[in-house]
Amino acid sequence: MLYKRFSIQILLLATFLLVGVQSFAQPNVGEGKQLFKDNCAQCHARNMKSDLTGPALGGMEERWADYPREDLYTWVRNSQKMIADGHPYALELWAKWKPTVMNQFPNLTDDQIESIILYVNDEYNKVDEVVVNGGTAGGATGSEPTNWSFYYVIVGVLALLALILGRLIILLNHQADQKEGTSLGEPKSVLSQVFSPSVIAFIIFILVLLFGHTVVNNAIDLGRQKGYQPQQPIKFSHATHAGEQQIDCQYCHDGARRSKHSVIPATNTCMNCHAAIKVGSTYGTEELTKIYASAGWNPNTGQYFASNVSEDDKNKAYKKWFKDEYVKANADATEKRINSAVDKQLANIQEFMGRPIEWTKIHNLPDHVYFNHAQHVSVGKVECQTCHGPVETMEVLEQHAPLSMGWCVNCHRETEVKFADNPYYNEDFYKAYHTEIKNGSRTAVTVEEIGGLECQKCHY
Amino acid sequence: MKNQNNDVWVGILDKTNDPQLEEMASKEFYELPVVDALSDEKFVEQSSTNRRDFLKYLGFGLGAATLAASCEIPVKKAIPYVVKPDEIVPGVATYYASSFVKGGDYCSVLVKTREGRPIKIEGNPTSKVTKGGTSARAQAVVLDLYNTERFKSPIVMGEEKGTATTWDDLDKTIASKINPASTIRIVTNTILSPTTKKAIADFTAKYPNTQVVTYDPISSAAILLANEASFGDKVIPDYHFDKAQFVMSFGADFLGTWISPVEYSTDWVKTRKIKDVHHAKMSRLVVAESGMSLTGSNADNRILIKPSEQGQAILYLCGKLGGGTSGKVNDKAAAALDAIAKELQAAQGKALVVSNSNDKNVQIVVNKINELLGSYGNTITFGNASLQRQGVDSEVQTLIGEMNSGSIDAVFVMGGANPAYDLPNSDKFKEAFAKVTTKVSFAGVIDETTAMCNYVAPNNHLLESWGDAQPKRGEYSLIQPTINLLYDTRESEMSLLKWAGSGVKSYYDYLKQNWEATLFPSQSNYATFQAFWDNALHDGAISVPVSEGELAFGADVATAAGSIKSASSAEVEIDFCESVNIGNGQYADNPWLQEMPDPVMRTVWGNYLAINIAFDGDNNYATFKGMNQDSKGHTDIAKFATAKGDATLPVVPVFGQMPNTVQAGLGYGREAITSTGQNTGVNLYPMLSINSDGLTQYWAEVSSVEKAGVEDEFACVQYHHTMGVTGTLEGSEEVINVDERILGHKGYQGSLTNRTILRTSHVGEVEDFVHDLQHEREHHQYLNSKTLYPDYSGLYGMGHHWGMHIDLNACTGCAACTVACMAENNVPVVGKREVHRHHEMTWLRIDRYFYGDVNNPNVVYQPLMCQHCDNAPCENVCPVAATNHSSEGLNQMTYNRCIGTRYCANNCPFKVRRFNWLDYTTADLWPANQFSINGEELPFGADNLTRMVLNPDVTVRSRGVIEKCSFCVQRIQEGKLLAKREGRKLKDNDVKTACQTACPTGAIVFGDANNKSGELHKALESPLNYILLEEINVRSSVTYSAKVHNRNTELDA
Asked: Are residues A204 and A113 in the same domain?
């Protein structure tokens, strides 16, 4: 317990230090992220490692290290001018990437460019860490791994200490008794000391305590689904979409910013992209066609079926689609193999024909809990990963957090409100906090301090 | 402190300090003795569970619970749209402007939908008719949509429930039954829709022998006919209650049921609010009636006249005003009318006289009075004349004759008409109706007339339909669907058009074309029809200019006066009234409205006989014929006889009921009705009579009244959750608070006999009153400053501090707020037996108190909900901290933490906490535990369809937990989130409680007391304000402003 509290304090301290460092630097990662999103992300990959329309930005500082920093700024603002002026590294880049022309950003200030560079480096290094840690990081908030051996050693030492002290007391008592002449023979042996009634009673007491603790803890966990990872009707991969393709979470989950529900996207949201991307990278036509079946879309023609097309005709169209694609991928396949593969795929999409996709809900809250995504995403600016974990690495989505009340409450205790940025928390209503912030006696306001732990914030 | 009116009372029991009441009030939960129930052999025999069953269930329950706990968690599915509609974001409400129309009842509304299902009705402030106000009836309409017993397809009636058919088959059948030569009658209540009328006209063009027979069960035909005679315009005029300084109503319940109560309430209250206490002014309202109506209870003075005396009273008044007529009324009323004549004359041009009489001659004299007072052109105009009552009763009487003669080939019943139930001679109608070969009903649910029809062509529910309404000339509004059709139903207009062989594809097109042809040219704001239409649809209501014609009064008053009958000489008379909730019976199948207590009688789930209470001046009260109610939930049953039959009804003694008159509500005792409306009350329509003009008369002579038993399940909330009861100290005559006697009467802080519950003043004495009130409050605050509690004002001063202000002067007691609260907060319906056991679940109740003259008292209505005390007594006693205080001043109730000790409810001085004694929400896993409210087969609320009306943002409470008003915390959180997302300060409009938006008179103001520029802050500055039980230092967040009346004591003499 003590250790736990201590470690939490250390964690907190570290967080404060980090926050402190961040808020002192002029160009900062947060601004850089926004700027990158607004200006660069169309052409440069977000992982900073792979080339896209433009080159990967990771490591650019080293590549430009031979030249003055101003050159880098100039390049960002107007690369074509630099090429025309004959800058050696500019020419080198042009040789490699022409005829792709980089957009001009004459309005970016030096600080802003520095912010972008900070963000680029940040992302670049983060990705490296992921590789180093074997792919477990990425905004994870998990607790420290418990150091059990440390506990065992302490318990052992304490037990030994207790034994020695006990022994000492027995011996001293014995001597005292002897002096007073009330002693009855030898002092108690070590064995009888260990198996004395009081020690046994104590051990039983400890065991009962441990048993109770285990039972209560397990009972509390009843109905909780941390790690829940059901099979979904479509083998949708968040790793591909959010990780590899870097699609913003809120592109599909468009309710998160404005509703209590994050919203599981409608089939027509999938069709925005998959009208063009018809064959999946992992499962080919097998999974993607389920979407087409749901949406009533004919992948052969790229058109939606007219409302009067019969089920049979739709099946024929899908059959043709499976067959064509299968043949394309397996040129040497026999007729029998083709047919069996096509039939299997056709059977798989039947339950989707013209119907909404029935996903298995992973994050379930009890009915008496009110949770609002917009509050956390739009107002609190909480990253999706804080609660949902590194979704961008999950091939099959699983529940990352316990979604228990203790977990919620803990976050509300620690999380700081965007107090200064949002005029909602204005001075008319929160005078005391604003005064404290001004005179330096307070650095931040946590959710708890504006009533975030009160029952009717979540239960009504 | 002369204005401190000690004489405020609820009923006889507290007036006489009945020890039973003291005992009852000392318990938060008045429980009928269990022994009584168990010793009741009938009850024990009925119960199906014996000891062995109990043990079986116990064992099974334990086993099942163990099994369930070890089972895997059920897999839940999340099913998104295939193509998501743009306007729907799951989790965010969408509002559509529409109109509530049922017969002549009208209200312009906004329909709140969530994920495509309507869940709540709000008022539409754009409307110039209802101005954002709503009524209880409008609030309850969402529940009708999810009635599981609606017709699910066209039906060919036959045995049992008939057989379902298809629209194609039905169309073919109807086509084979009628031909252009057929004589067809369309029976309907008032139709407000111009497009429906056009569809009928198109139908008539194909079938020229078609006639529309319009009647209203509670008729205003006499006004129509009188205006035709007086001005040549057969219409209900536009009454301007906001311009009247003196309103005299002869029985017209214009705040509750008469023609357009929402509109009249919003207008009338404008003249009743006190803006400046130093120069306080307010209009006067005098009501002449026998039984206490909602309007009568809001009146400054009531003149007691028998129902049969009304014509004579009007003649008498007309004569006094120089109209050359004379009438004979009882001496007391005559004296009062003398004084009123003077007051009316003084208010020349600002006076308004209305009457609910359904005698054309009486209404002509009323018109003459208004003419004499210069009301026409001032308080009564015809430019925006009301179209909300168009029926003339005599037409339906003619139809009965036609049907009997066999000349009618087909009758179509539409517009909610139910003549087989609500005609005075419904037996004759049924007899004649049975002779017609082709009878088609357009009703959406079963009713008495539909049960007799051959075919049912079910109309869509209002919330599934396109349509329009013209409540007044120049005022139009649209009805738009807010949900896809739940069943295979069709607009009745479409049925008519189909049968007329019209090629119209959809009623929407037809409606749009009609608006393009008729309304679009009459306005000049929009250049294109599309823009006009889009705007009208968005706003819900539009106005087009009307011309104010010249009117000349041209009726023959002398002849009319000569034909008015003299008062009946019968010893006892009964007045039949329309009830605020059930109306003329068309709302009887709505459980929310059935559970809404009658504003005056405080009764639910049935009609009751209001009887007189006589006071002998010596603290003795004699009820009519000695019939009375007791505090144990029993009341006497009266059997009374009229010329047209007899009936038995439980009695309710009501102060202010005229001696030797009784009153009872119409609209109950429906036979063919969906199951939740079964067995509620007695049908009194057959007791009505028809006068020589063929108009229905809503009173009767009573030949005998006698006690005929005892009602054991008397569902009257009058004495439920009573607070501030006084009693006499034993051994002395000293009057003390009942709760003090329990404590031993040792002079506790605030031990004032006169608890601060109601404060009333006469308008002329407001200045003195305010002085006294402030003095009293200062005294309370001084005592409170000696508290031992820590001071949290610093904490509450930061962020928001939610508060409410209720203007008792603006509250008319219409109870729209109570139904709105039920709809918003998923408050369960419990039914008659449970209400009888004090188990009603309403979070918001309206207490009705009498004050003043015992024989002719004034009334004040006090909406009471959780007061969100900052020193809440309930919070301290909860052993599990399930109720505690938020930093925003909310008294929070956490259902999942509640273990049901009910200590909090016991400790609540306002008695606003409610306990779920049974599984009212039918959330239980075991059907055996499911609770039915009215003996229905499928328990109300057990079906998923009915549960679609639930507000998804509010937890449905299970059995065994306490619940109470949350200040609509879901709306608070929603409003805060909106402001946070938009990065701005919270505004008044962001958060409005359900009761606040429902109120037609703006009596409720909710807001953040810390917002110095807000509406609430302004309201809290009124010197008329006081806080309930301020002396006990609970620091409630609800502030009331005192009731100010304008009673003229001269009239009492």
From this structure: no
A344 and A396 within one domain: no
Say if residue A152 is in the same domain as residue A128.
Answer: no
Domain boundaries, chain B: 8-28+723-1045, 222-386, 570-711
Q: Which of A97, A132, A167 is the last residue of a domain?
A: A132
Classify domain B8-28+723-1045 by CATH number: 3.30.70.20
Binned at pLDDT 50, 70 and 90, residue B938 comes out as confident
Query: Which pLDDT belongs to residue A329?
Result: 83
Q: Which of B865, B859, B974 is nearest to B913 (CA)?
A: B865
Measured in angstroms, the CA of A98 and the nearest CA of chain B are apart by: 42
Q: Are residues A32 and A116 in the same domain?
A: yes
Is A251 inside a domain boundary?
Answer: no
pLDDT in tens, B776-786: 899 888 888 88
CATH no. of B222-386: 3.40.228.10
Q: B109-159, pLDDT tens digit by residue?
A: 999 999 889 999 999 999 999 999 999 999 999 999 999 999 999 999 887
- Give the confidence band of B523 by pLDDT, cuts at 50, 70, 90: confident
Where would I find the H helices in B785-935? 793-796, 816-824, 831-836, 873-877, 903-907
Q: Is it true that domain B570-711 has CATH number 2.40.40.20?
A: yes
Q: Element (H or E) spanning B944, and its range? A: helix B944-947
Cα–Cα dist B490/B199, whole Å: 14
B126–A contact, CB cutoff 8 A? no
For residue A452, being part of any structural domain is answered with yes
Span between the terminal Cα atoms of chain A, in Å: 33
Which residues are CB-contacts of B193 (< 8 A; sequence separation ≥ 6)? Answer: B101, B467, B468, B469, B470
Candidates B12, B22, B7; CA nearest to B722 is: B22
Interface of A with B in 264-303 (CB under 8 A): 264-269, 294-296
E strand residue ranges, B425-486: 438-441, 455-456, 467-472, 475-479
- For the stretch B760-775, pLDDT in tens is 899 989 999 999 999 9
Does any domain span residue A272?
yes
Q: How far does CA A410 lie from the centroid of its chain?
A: 17
Distance CA B994, CA B997 (A): 5
pLDDT in tens, B46-61: 666 677 888 888 888 8
Q: Examine residue A252 and state whether it is found in any structural domain, yes or no.
A: no
Query: Is the CB of B78 less than 8 angstroms away from the CB of A460?
Result: no
| B989 neighbors B995 (Cβ within 8 angstroms) | no
Sequence-separated (6 or more) residues with CB below 8 Å from residue B363: B222, B223, B225, B226, B227, B355, B357
Contact residues, chain A, for B794 at CB < 8 Å: 432
A39 and A122 inside one domain: yes
Contact present, B464 and B489 (Cβ < 8 Å): yes
Instruction: Kindly state whether B956 is in contact with chain A, defined as any CB-CB distance less than 8 angstroms.
Output: yes
The complex's ipTM works out to 0.86
Listed in sequence order, the DSSP H helices in B256-392 are 261-270, 294-298, 310-320, 331-346, 360-372
DSSP β-ladder status, B845-851 and B8-9: antiparallel
Bridge-based pairing state of the strands B455-456 and B438-441: parallel
Q: Which residue range forms the structural domain that includes residue A87?
A: 26-132
Q: For residue B650, what are the β-bridge partners?
A: B637
Contact by Cβ (8 Å): B939, B591: no
In this complex, is the C-beta atom of B518 within 8 Å of any C-beta atom belonging to chain A?
no
How high is the pLDDT of residue B36?
A: 57
Which site among A456, A457, A458, A459 would you substitute to test the B interface, given the most B Cβ atoms closer than 10 Å to its Cβ? A456
Q: Would you tell me how many other CB atoms lie within 10 Å of the CB of residue A264?
A: 18
Residues A267-277, mean pLDDT to the nearest whole number: 91
Number of domains chain A is built from: 4
Segment B826-857, tens digit of pLDDT: 999 999 988 988 889 999 999 998 888 888 89
